[in-house]
Amino acid sequence: MSSSPGEPPEAGYQPMRPRVSASARVLTAFFSQALTSFKATSSKLGVICTVSRQPVGTSQKDDQPAIPSPLPPRARPRTLIILDSSFNPPTRAHLRMATSAILSEGRPPTTTNHNVENAVDVGGRAETTRLLLLLSINNADKAPKPAPFHQRLGLMWAFAQDVQAWLQQQASTAIDVDIGLSALPFFHEKSEAIDQVGFYQQGAPEVKMGQVMLVGYDTLIRVFNPKYYGPVAAPPPGTPLDTSVPTAAENKQEKPRTPMQKALGPLFQRARLRVTMRTDDEWGGKDEQLKYLQDLVQGDDGEEGGGHGLGRIGGSKEWAERIEMVEGREAGTEVVSSTYARDAAREGNRERLDKMVSDGVKWWIEEEGLYRE
After folding, report:
1. Using one digit for the tens of pLDDT, what is the confidence trace for 99-118?
2. Closest listed residue to residue 289, CA positions, set 324, 319, 335, 325
3. β-pair type (79-84, 177-182)
4. Region annotation Disordered: residue ranges (predicted)?
5. What's the longest Cα–Cα distance across the chain?
6. Is the pLDDT of residue 172 over 70?
7. Of 28-37, 136-145, 222-231, where does mean pLDDT reach its minimum?
8. How far does Cα 11 stand from its chain's mean position?
9. Predicted confidence band at 29 (pLDDT cuts at 50, 70, 90)?
10. Containing H/E element for 162?
11. What is the per-residue pLDDT across 15-25, written as a single tens digit (0 to 9) for each?
12. Contact (CB, 8 A) for 71 and 203
């Protein structure tokens, strides 16, 4: 049954046979070596392999999976969709985030935060859009447990193939999916490194690559938490309070930027945030989450935003134009999370695990015996 871009991929859809085949030994060794090599370098970000929309060098024998390799684009993508997560494990919620974002890039823009030049039809999407699955080995908030990083890379590999399978079967399209590692903890640092990495510098240098960063509502809250950027500089002790009215010339002078503006200003020049709402007891309902974004804009003017506007926390309210809020799960449907997926795997509840993760990811979890302890 076909799913629209705004609907979650159905559990039990018929996937293509995973190219990870019958054994994960070769792939596990590859990802272990790739992780070791990345840690041994001074690189802050790198693409270690690509799951191509047209399989290259894939063996037909189940016991001889193809060795992954990075496949740089022949031309600089116009849009790079970035799913930065702990992938512990990737779930059907992640699959929904990725596939709906990919399909949305093929439709004409409906709001002012889309660039018409980046809108492509289904036939052109494969050449102008790519998906990057990014694993941070130095996450600002999450420690590397319970699955080790090389196993998470394997889960990402299986997940990338599930993305390909869903796109081909449900939308008759496909794009290349890159798998990358980052040693940077913060979104703005990762965005800058992605923009500069040589992997995406192929083709005409004048082509500007836009970034679409896929995040959950909880991540949006962290992005605008001032604690990650440092305090706004205070005047030196003893500085007299200036109560004079500024002149017209002084008003035109550029004000010093806050730490948050220095960090996030360049981010929002190159990237949009596509935020999937999380409607549950912890984060509130849809209206509450939409109001949070509204308060970021209106909170600088009057009391509507309760003093939580971007301007008051050291940001710029224009950034809100680069944020798109999209529906998460429908009301009344089961919550899907990595925590519940790990619990199902530990309990040996295969039926519940199937509801939490896509087919290839489930295969990898069971093949490698992950989350049993």
Report:
1. 999 999 865 333 333 333 33
2. 325
3. unpaired
4. 55-75, 235-258
5. 79
6. yes
7. 136-145
8. 22
9. very high
10. helix 149-171
11. 444 444 436 88
12. no
Q: Tell me the pTM.
A: 0.82
pLDDT at 350 over 80: yes
Locate 120 and state its tokens.
């492509």
Compute the average pLDDT of residues 68-79: 91
* Token pair 């999407």 in the structure block, residue: 125
In the chain, where do the E strands start and end?
45-51, 79-84, 129-136, 177-182, 210-216, 271-276, 323-326
Question: What is the C-alpha to C-alpha distance for residues 214 and 205, in angstroms, rounded to an integer?
Answer: 25
Question: Residue 263 phi/psi, 5° resolution?
Answer: -80, -50
- What length is written for the chain? 373
Say how far apart CA 318 and CA 261 lie, in whole Å. 11
* Per-residue confidence band for 365, with pLDDT thresholds at 50, 70 and 90: very high
DSSP string covering 38-53? HHHS--SEEEEEEE-S
CA nearest to 359, candidates 3, 7, 4, 20: 20
On the 0-12 / 13-18 / 19+ scale of CB atoms within 10 A, 311 is middle
Tell me the average pLDDT across 75-87: 94
Q: In 143-165, which positions are buried (b, 16+ CB within 10 angstroms) versus exposed (e)?
A: eeeebebbbbbbbbbbbbbbbbb
Mean pLDDT of the residues in the chain? 80
Q: How far apart are CA 154 and CA 145, in angstroms?
A: 15
In 3D space, the residue among 42, 40, 36, 89 whose CA is nearest the CA of residue 193 turns out to be 42
* CA neighbor of 176 nearest in space, from 102, 260, 279, 95: 102
Sheet holding 210-216, edge to edge: 45-51, 177-182, 129-136, 79-84, 210-216, 271-276, 323-326
Q: What is the pLDDT of residue 300?
A: 58
Q: What is the pLDDT of residues 156-171, one digit of tens each?
A: 999 999 999 999 999 8
Specify whether the CB–CB gap between 15 and 359 falls below 8 A: yes
